[in-house]
Amino acid sequence: MRKVRDFDAELKALNDRAKLLKQRKVQQFGELIEATGADALEPDLLAGALLAAVAEKDKAIMTKWSREGAQFFRDTSRRSSRRAGGGDAGGTTAQTGSESA
Question: What global pTM score does this model have?
Answer without folding.
Answer: 0.62
